[in-house]
Amino acid sequence: MTDKEKLYNKLKENPRNIRFNKLCQTAEAFGFEFKGGKGSHRIYMKKGINEMLNFQSVHGKAKPYQVRQLIKVIEKYNLLKEEDDDV
């Protein structure tokens, strides 16, 4: 199992208990780039993907709907498979 798969599975297991920093790390592992943000918000984008991800920290935790948003984008664009193509 690759590192990306481990990160992805961790998100899917329990989207209600993900640390904000772990969510940001996972987005970056899948090729999303930090584009800015104010306060507790962080914006991530990836070339070739229309969706913009906006994450917000609440007491160090990620909001569950934002975790599910990242999961949905990973699945929609086959980002897990993308790694296999690179090898």
Keyphrases for this structure?
4 strands, 4-stranded antiparallel sheet, alpha+beta, 4 helices, 87 residues, single chain, 48% helix, Metal Transport, Frataxin, Chain A
- Overall geometry: globular
Q: What is the CATH top level name? A: Alpha Beta
Q: What class do helices, strands and sheet pairing give? A: alpha+beta
Low-confidence stretches: none
The residue-averaged pLDDT reads: 93
- The CATH homology group name: Hypothetical protein
Along the chain, the helix and strand elements come as HHEEEEHH
> Into which percent range does the helicity of residues fall?
40-55%
Largest sheet: 4 strands, antiparallel
Whole-number radius of gyration?
12 Å
CATH topology: Metal Transport, Frataxin, Chain A
Q: What gap, in angstroms, lies between the N and C termini?
A: 14 Å
Query: What count of domains describes the coordinates?
Result: 1
The percent range for strand residues is 15-25%
Read across the widest sheet, the strand sequence of neighbours is: 1-2-3-4
Report the strand count.
4
Oligomer category: single chain
Query: Count the helices. How many?
Result: 4
The CATH architecture: 2-Layer Sandwich
